[in-house]
Amino acid sequence: MPIIDSNGIKLYYEELGEASKPPLLLIMGITAPGSVWYDHAKEWSKEFRCILVDNRGVGKSDKPKGPYTTAQMADDCAGLLETLNLENVSVAGVSMGSTIALELAIRHPKLVKSLLLMCPWARCDNKAKAIFEHMMVCKARFRPEEFSHYIQLLIYAKASWDNEETVKELAEGREQDAIGENQQPLHGLEGQAYACINHNVYDKLASISQSTFIVGGEEDEFTPKWMSEEINAAMPNSEMYLYPKSGHIFHFENLEDFNKRALNWLLAH
């Protein structure tokens, strides 16, 4: 279980896939450790050396008091890639991870070969800021299973809630979160939330030359599709696909299709 020194903190990461394969850095979203990538990385590691990182503030990485910035977390990832002697790396980021990926491409362009941006945003509007502010309040006041329920309501689309099997699985997930080990501390969540609120790279998007695939859900209420559309319109070498009847967690709601679609794009770019 490797832990390295990067940008002033201890950063935890895991690898799936052979070291001889092309590298793929996977950056997870707010509240989530890198292990949440497993259902994707198990497939992608057949073709890539998948590097799963725990962002600062969560998992087994250090959790200093914030606020954090997405630029700071991008520098964390840059330190990891430099420690591994890697450059020209494919980078996938989901939600907050996509904002970190954008900053990585802006701040360390030689490290980034291509970008897979999942439910991304370049800047927050007032509603997005209010959601992150409310998330901090909920984390402070709710029991772990209640906070988990709140997050589920944010990220799953109506089609998932209408599926009784999915509803059962979500309930089981909340039960596990009630007793889970290594839960994210409040100050870790707050540090990440402030990074999300203050992220604004809209004016720099045109400078990102790497091939970019933007993927999201048509019914995402957390990071609505206008956010993806704004990035796609501003970046010179991007393309976009939005899954119908899908929310912020479209990549699990359409797991098999997304894994194949993303893998094919990554292999081609």
UniProtKB/TrEMBL annotation:
It comes from the Bacteria. Pfam families: Abhydrolase_1. InterPro entries: AB_hydrolase, AB_hydrolase_1, AB_hydrolase_fold. The keyword Kinase does not apply. Keywords: Hydrolase. GO terms for molecular function: hydrolase activity. Residues 22-254 form the AB hydrolase-1 domain. This is Alpha/beta hydrolase. The keyword Transport does not apply.
